[in-house]
């Protein structure tokens, strides 16, 4: 209850910050974009992990307010970074199931794009398989509306949810993010390696961009390059960085 109360306070006093984790194109080392990750800068406790407070935000329903704030914040940040990074650099936000289920989501996103004068393709929204499966017709409508405008949609943590491959055909998406547990095991477990290879091939045959999450070693990176993965993200490159560090991140790695 104490935690819940301080969460409500944190929402009111805006103790939340976004950190940005870079994503790198394998083709040429260019910066694809950044994933925004929420951090709670508690006035006494310091930085609190989202693993702790995101589930609580979900339970209390506060997630929809914070979630809207996150989208607004990355739109604002993308606008500010207009001259810092190339035009096609993408910022992505994680959407909770509740937030994805909100009827106001599409209008909010369109309004924010307009307000900040962004190109729709500069914004990507990450949703999980289970969020999509909650209400399939709603999901199809929302994805269709967002993608028609040009907003990118990524499926996050792919492979850990329902993992019915049939829904890749039902839902229009741009990006598939392979969950980091598969990447962590790929070089020691032939089964995980086979799954990653299959997901890369599947993505390409569906014309979907594929991102490997949680890349931590050069061996993993080299292997992902060999199997034709499009894009990588992980501690090998950088953890999620505060704004002032993120904007120093090179637009192209050597
Ligand atoms: O940022 P990690 O470093 O600890 O994130 C932990 C979990 O919190 C991940 O599953 C991530 O998707 C989730 N998360 C981080 N930021 C956000 C956010 O802005 N909104 C939602 N809904 N989840 C987030
Ligand atoms: O669920 P989602 O993929 O949005 O969660 C992102 C989470 O993964 C964040 O907690 C982020 O800090 C974490 N993360 C990002 N890169 C790595 C990595 O290379 N290794 C590990 N173990 N975690 C990572
Ligand atoms: Mn994510
Ligand atoms: Na993920």
Automatic annotation (TrEMBL):
It is found in: Cell inner membrane. Residues 1-254 form the EAL domain. This is cyclic-guanylate-specific phosphodiesterase.
